[in-house]
Amino acid sequence: MRGEDEKQNGMFSYVTLEQRIPGDHPVRQIRVLADRGLQRMDAELELLYAKTGRPSIAPERLLRALLLMVLYSVRSERQLMEQLDYNLLFRWFVGLEMDDPVWDVTVFSKNRERLIAGAVSQQLLNAVLVEAREQQLLSEEHFTVDGTLIQAWAAARSFKDKSDPPQPGSGSGYKGEVLLRDRVESKTDPEARLYKKAAADKAVPSYQGHALIENRNGLVVAAEASLAATVAERAMALKLLDRVIRPRNEHPDKKITLGADTQYQEAAFIQALRDREIAPHVSEYGEGHNLGKNSLNQEERQDPERVTSQRKRKLIERVFGWSKLDRPLRQVKLRGLSRVDWFYRLTIAAYNLVRMRRLIPIQGMAA
Fold this sequence. Notes:
alpha/beta, globular, six-stranded mixed β-sheet, two-stranded antiparallel sheet
């Protein structure tokens, strides 16, 4: 029997948001992990707000909404507010009831600025790593580092000549070479630089994102964005290592290794790793005019663990592939290094949450 196409609208719903979300939906596990991290951040979030005045948007809801932007590739905050108005899954994840009003997009953006000023994305990343460490998902000895290009929210035609370009020998190129990005500046985003990763590529307005992963499960343990420059990857690698590596006297018997590609094959960088007692498992040039850059000694070259480190190096490419394939990090819609860095760390925290969802047993995910 054919059913009737009834036009009468129901006035009430007796199915809650909690009941509408399938029990095996991936966002359920991500929500549990995110809430655990937010609970650990409670004291830090409290410091960002005054004790009196009109209540603002709860920072926990702000962060959950921003995580949705990354997880579901929402292209703008305006579209996010539109989705929150009618998408019940989004409402449930953020913590809104079905009848709760959605925030105005300008109010949402204004409240987000407080989170940027408070470096909350780094705090979220730290809180997620605490959970990973408690679940024994992290390696404390074996790491991989790499960098990626982040296209800036600026056009090439916005670049004009600088009034005070750097002097010869003080540029951002190899041995201080003054490059094109040193001589011109974008009027849209002055901190973005024209940069390309390969000689055959086209230079585009860019920043660089850097990540340090542990080799056990490929979780990112440190991340930061920087200005685009040839030397940025090696300088940031050492900065991330110093942030993560524990004092040597705590584990004097453990060997720490770092895997990397040929971009890190530089004598000064290799020596800096030796000074930190870190085994340089860096890929070497096999042919061409770059053979002279190979700086490993025979003992380091024959280290049996170096093969394992190079095999594990592909794990970091998954991080960048996931972050840039169809997500906002492909071309970040924020201007200025501080904002780009903030959003980059938020994206990395989201990646860790997605990765940990697959690593933690289902029975261990109960809130």
